[in-house]
Amino acid sequence: MPNRTELANAIRVLSMDAVQKANSGHPGMPMGMADIAESLWRHHLKHDPSDPRWPDRDRFVLSNGHGSMLLYSLLHLTGYDLPMSELVAFRQLHSKTPGHPEYGITAGVETTTGPLGQGLANAVGMALGEALLAGEFNRPGHAIVDHHTWVFLGDGCLMEGISHEACSLAGTLKLGKLIAFYDDNGISIDGKVTGWFTDDTPKRFEAYGWQVIPAVDGHDGAAVDRAIAAAKADAGRPTLICCRTVIGKGAPNKQGTADTHGAALGDKEVAATRAALGWTSEPFEIPEDVRAAWDSRARGAVASSSWRERFQAYAGAHPELAAEYTRRMDGRLPSGFEAAAAAAIEAAQGKADAFATRKASQNTLNALAPSLPELVGGSADLMGSVFTDWAGSRVVLPDGNGTLRGNIVNFGVREFAMAAITNGLALHGGFIPETGTFLTFSDYSRNALRMAALMGLRNVFVFTHDSIGLGEDGPTHQSVEQVSSLRLIPNLDVWRPCDGAETAVAWKSALTRTSGPTVFALSRQGLAPQPRTAAQLGEIAKGGYVLADADAGRPAVVLIATGSEVALAMAARALLQAEGIAARVVSMPCTSVFDAQDAAWRAAVLPRNIPRVAIEAGVSDFWRKYVGAADDGRGAVLGLDRFGESAPAGVLFKHFGFTAEAIAGLARSVISAA
Question: Long-range contacts: 595-604, Cβ < 8 Å, 24+?
Fold first, then answer.
């Protein structure tokens, strides 16, 4: 039987060989954390390589995702569907071993990591998901939700500000099943971190309310085992295990230096490392006794089958709860959702009063949330402005027994962490997150939005105060470039609705979309409802549709607008019609959904060879793909290519030329140029 160091050496050798073959990657971290990984994955982690998605598995997150060969080595060695040929193809096109772990590509990878600190925040979300599901579904004698979330992280993760945001909240929420291993090797790409990172990390985490286990020898498996036991024994606090390690351990001439961090060791150092470790096997060959010792399939099958037996007993005692748990973890909406959503859309269309779309959003939540127990809302200290709560919602807090309960998270002023934590919540399963802040502050959370889109997560980001229409708060808060900028992120649907009906449709779209996240850009100011036929009400879901057409015949001009500017386009149409100019108004609440429609629909809404004017209180360049190049007089954009001002909304719209008269003037101009 190989000893523990020899088993850890399998990770070291696989990692350095794969990086060397690719001539690209990060061998130092996998080599430095190999002993910690051996301890966790062989002796503590609850997982089943043959059933990577069973619900009560432990979650493992590699927040320092640049060390991806550590995870790929573990997945291969323990028996996941990751053959050696995929390790040989590390970082190559279409392999299952991309440069950083990617969710949905490789069995056993729980989240996409690489942007440092976000994996740690994802792990907080996963631990939050476990705690909330346990509080909701567990019953005496039936602990069907009972697993840990483990996360590896390094100095870079801790230097990123998101680590403060996420870990502070984790301590406040007392997420006792969250256990993090800090790879304290003192090295980053630029060298020894003492020149730029001198925090007292243990005291920092103690201040957050974490249990901290300091000064653990990360190369002593028994010491790591003891630390893990202590971490699991404290169910009331998350734990940080500070492991002192040597980056690139085993490389005799480069270990402990930045040379091992982000580049292949080189053929000579690889050979020297083999000799120093006493490893005689050829590259990508694992001795049979080492392979047998790592194989976790039998133990994993026992763990997963035992849980399924316990779940069957739970289903016998609590059949309705078991069915609901299964539905939630499968990601299926309740059977009555379609009818409830249709009723909410009809009700929104029937309202005669002007509502801010942020309030229309809450009205929709009030209609849908009671039948959607998987919905978890929250805000970045702006609940009274963004309205992401609903009647009957409850703030997530520990009860008298320390069990977390509720469905609204007060994230505090932590926009970036809020987005990344809810990504983790979505990844965990059983929940659909929806959180809010002001649209301008989407910039704080942008990279987490990008990661949600990259992973294809069902996560709803509610951004309000969407333009100069917020008024007196001025240019620091008035979004100008944000809507167009967010539309540039692939696989992110951005809805900017013009009234309550479009807002309700946006909610239905977001909740039924399982392939990616959705952003709402909602108004602070009241917007009058637009009249629609039943057919038009159904066409909102296509992302762009004809809201009002020419009274007779072919239109002379098409006015395209979103959000609060739709009403201005309708007013401009009335002016043009009074002059005998036939005008069509197209409302386009979601450009990506419209662009995904078939060519026939797009051509029916935006016919060729008819001049077009786009109207949106934001940067103008985005709209050129619909109206034509700036030097083509047959198309125009009324936009805002500068920052706003501090004044009441009505004053600002007039000041910046967002009036029906100005739109009508542009329409006449493009008609003349045609």
Answer: 595/543, 596/543, 597/542, 597/543, 597/544, 601/542, 602/544, 604/546
101-153 pLDDT, tens per residue? 999 999 999 999 999 999 999 999 999 999 999 999 999 999 999 999 999 99
Cβ-based burial of 343 (10 A; exposed 0-12, middle 13-18, buried ≥19)? middle
Say how far apart CA 365 and CA 363 lie, in whole Å. 5
Nearest Cα to 394, choosing from 405, 383, 381?
405
Residue 616 annotated in active site: no
**Dihedral sign computed on CA atoms, order 305, 309, 315, 321:** negative
Residue tagged active-site, from 38, 165, 374, 415: 415
| 646 contacts 474 by C-beta, under 8 angstroms | yes
Long-range contacts of 635-643 (CB under 8 A, 24+ apart): 635/611, 635/670, 636/612, 636/666, 636/669, 636/670, 637/613, 638/565, 638/613, 638/614, 638/662, 638/663, 638/666, 639/614, 639/615, 640/467, 640/468, 640/480, 641/480, 642/480, 643/475, 643/478, 643/480
Chain segment 525-543, per-residue pLDDT in tens: 999 999 999 999 999 999 9
> What secondary structure, in 3-state letters, does 112-161 show?
CCCCCCHHHHHHHHHHHHHHHHHHHHCECCECCCCCCEEEEEEHHHHHCH
Ranges of H-type helices in 23-60? 28-43
R_g (Cα) of the chain, nearest Å: 28
For tokens 């910039």, name the residue. 443
Residue 624 has a CB neighbour count (10 Å cut-off) of 14
pTM of the predicted model as reported, rounded to 2 decimal places:
0.98
